[in-house]
Amino acid sequence: MIKKNIATNEFGFVFNPATGDSYSSNPMAAEIIQLMKENLSLNEIKKMLLDKYEVDKMILEKDLDEFVGLLKENNLLSN
Amino acid sequence: MNENKSPLVIAVTGLNAIDSPGPGVAVIRALRDGMTQPIRIIGLAYENLEPGIYMDGICDKTYQISYPAAGAEVLYNVIKSIHEKEKIDVIIPNFDAELYNFITIAPRLKALGIHSFLPDFEMFDARDKLNLYAFGKKHNLLVPKDKPIYTVSELEALGEEFGYPLVVKGKYYEAVVAYTLEQAQKAFYKISTKWGMPIIVQQFINGTEVNIAALGDGEGGATSIIPMRKMYITDKGKAWAGITLEDDTLIDLAKKIVAATKWRGGFEVEIMKTAKDELYIMEINPRFPAWIYLTAGAGQNQPAALIKLAMGEKVIPFTSYDVGKLFIRYSWDHIVDVSKFQQFTAFGSL
Amino acid sequence: MSKLKYERPLIKKMHAGMMNKFGSQDENTPVTHIDGVSVKSLIDTYGSPVFVLSEQKIRQNYKSAVRAFTTRYPKVQFAWSYKTHYNNAVCNIFHQEGSWAEVVSGFEYKKALGNGVPGSNIIFNGPDKHIDEMQLAIENDSLLHIDHFEELYLLIDLCARLDKKARVAIRVNMDTGVYPMWDRFGFNYENGQAWQALTKIIESGKLHLVGLHAHIGTYMLSTAAYGVAATKLCDLATKCKAELHTAVKYIDLGGGFPSANTLKGAIGQVPTPSVDEFAEVITSTILNYGFNTEELPLLILESGRVMIDDAGYLLGTVLANKKLSDGRKATIMDFGVNIMFTSFWYDHKISPAQEVSHFNEDTVMYGPLCMNIDIVRETVNLPLLNRGDHVVVHKVGAYNMTQWMQFIAMRPNIVLIDTNNHTHIIRKAETLDYLQELELMPDHLKRKN
């Protein structure tokens, strides 16, 4: 899942020490990254977010898939 | 009146002290040296890697501002919101491209209490590339002849009028010295594909380049004039080192320009001095040059004088300066933590 | 416990040099209402997409343009440029305000007559006036602006047959220092063509020369060019008086004033001069030219765009979000170049129509057509929009509702918000019946049951 050495902070900044790239994220993305760092699976994360936020399951699924794709593209995932 | 102990807040743009530098950092250094009262410097940056944002002892705080293309309205709103936090007293814009917007909003900034010392549009337009020849003609100053052209067929007649070599220039950038009609045509096609129309054809002037940094008081008087010759230039044509000169003809020329335009603010004149000692005005840049710190070093601190003029104080024109003062530009690797970069990039202030 | 508001997760790489555009949040301030009417209610009532026009803004624009000129010059007349927007309701706003009509085709001419504009207050421009249309214009005593010699000879002929003198002007093209030069319309000043045409008009004895017309270009950013144009028309007018013993009654400087839209590919900021700045140059040129006060010509302006562009909005809805093969984000809207022709040359400002967070992203904005060039904005920085969210496109009042295409999608409703904030449909959304009304079916292709 998400690379262990990815640094995040309270402002939603993400830093990839392996590439030197910095990222900014919105609170939703920061929360998901945090949950991923806590080793939760995507399904668990989806469930948690559905409970917590006013969002349609289909839309969340699409957004999450896209987001994971984005993380992968940016070399932030380990597998 | 109450004695106001709070520092004078001065906002400055052009913090890109890189290989082709903006004047901001040099202006700030001059202010830090030359202002007798306490000052607080607010940097205004367009990009997140402008060194002046991160350098120690330059800006007390830096804000991101919108690119000139966003327009005067957006700029006004950005400056206004910064002003609400910082209470800016004076603003010194340092880029050609941003001046139009700053001149546009200057009266409204004044109404907010933000002073500036800028030329008006009439002065600004008079020295524009496209109007410079007419300006020279009107005031009996030498300016190389030029003409904007739109078709390649106009080159032949101009070749006869100007003689070869001549200079084929793009609207914004790039210039080629052409020695034959064929070369001029080639340059026309090459540059017009890249930069569009018109193409500017200019008479070629052979000589030594000399630069002048000057400060006009807005009433026809020159508060300061410092002539300088570049001793060495980088491959981008920027000064690597330069030296102050003693030459009354240069000072007279600058005085004439100030008197003719009633220039208000800082400006730079690029001059070509021919073998016959003719002084051709190649360009007038409507702001301080990047080498402006040399004026402070030579005893005429132009940025500090500009602040006084902007605040409505009387400034007695300088009469002397140190001749033979050199500046040598150097680069310097400044170490910054990534968090500062992140913060400035994301929040637009540091 | 009620759930929290959701926002699509977003992560953005920080680039060296270019800033993430958090600094320009105010560009994305939501526009939830137009003239006090909510965008949502407009879309609920009139569908999406829908064009919305502000009558108040139109009247304001007109009044301030008139003020710009009348405070500087004693005799001024505006003529509404029909091609800019010829919906009758819109035309009548201008006519109520005192505007004449400026038309460039027979059907526009008839529209103006139908709107109750007196024939003598209609200016007929353009290179394609049919003979029957010219005849109608002559009979109605309208102002015919001649574009080419063929037209001039036809008109002389026609007047001879009708035994009626047409009131005419010639359109003059000239070098005003702005390129490209619009030398395809009218008679050239510099090469003497214009003078030749004027001489011919007077010599014919069949035409009544009343004016001189120039229209130097569109979306002009130089006020100086109008000064040059005014000077050259004044030169011609003086020469007419001296050599042809004919005093022209008016000088028509056409239109071409820009609106505050952003032209595509503009390198750096190209500031657009205000109507006041144009008025200053034009009126001071004519006033300083040296006419006797009683001989000062009437000044006619045919401004279109600057009067209505910012009074028009297009409201639309997000259909989908997509990621392109190169990683760029794309947003598909329910409106495209079919109804927003001007997106070919403007980067239209687009605002979200509902509350948004300050997180935003660059996206390509596509229209709904199955056509690759259907691009509304090549790149626009917007908050994270979801399917069903609404947007407001600004400054679409000029040309879009005359140049729109009936391609793939039909044209939507046009709604006018009056000065009391009441809404009126001024053109109904097209229907299949409307679309097929003019179609005819040959017998052999008729469906047999």
Q: What would your notes on this structure say?
A:
The complex is a heterotrimer of chains A (79), B (350) and C (449). Helix content of chain A is 49%, strand content 16%. Chain A is of the alpha+beta class and 79 residues long. Chain A has a three-stranded antiparallel sheet with strand order 1-2-3. In chain A, α2 (42-52) crosses α3. The radius of gyration of chain A is 12 Å and the shape is globular. The model of chain A has no long low-confidence stretch (mean pLDDT 88). With 350 residues, chain B is α+β, with helices and mostly antiparallel strands. Chain B has twelve helices and 14 strands. The model of chain B has no long low-confidence stretch (mean pLDDT 91). Chain C has helices spanning 39-46, 55-70, 88-97, 106-114, 131-139, 149-162, 193-204, 224-244, 275-287, 305-308, 400-403, 432-436, and strands at 4-5, 11-13, 33-34, 37-38, 50-54, 76-81, 100-103, 122-124, 143-146, 166-173, 187-188, 207-213, 250-252, 298-301, 312-323, 329-333, 350-352, 360-366, 375-383, 390-393, 414-417, 423-427. In chain C, the strands form three sheets. In chain C, strands 5, 15, 16, 17, 18, 19, 20, 21 and 22 form a nine-stranded mixed sheet that branches. Chains in contact: A-B, A-C, B-C. The A-C interface holds A 14, 21-29, 31-33, 49, 51-55, 59-60, 63-64, 66-67, 69-71, 73-74 and C 2-14, 20, 323, 327, 357, 359, 384, 386. β4 (53-54) of chain A pairs parallel with β1 (4-5) of chain C.
Global morphology of chain B: globular
**Domain module tally of chain C:** 2
Mean pLDDT of chain B: 91
DSSP strand tally of chain C:
22
| Number of DSSP helical runs of chain C | 12
Number of strands of chain B: 14
Q: Which key phrases capture this entry?
A:
heterotrimer; A: 79 residues; alpha+beta; three-stranded antiparallel β-sheet; 16% strand; B: 350 residues; Rossmann fold; Dna Ligase, domain 1; six-stranded antiparallel β-sheet; four-stranded parallel β-sheet; 12 helices; 14 strands
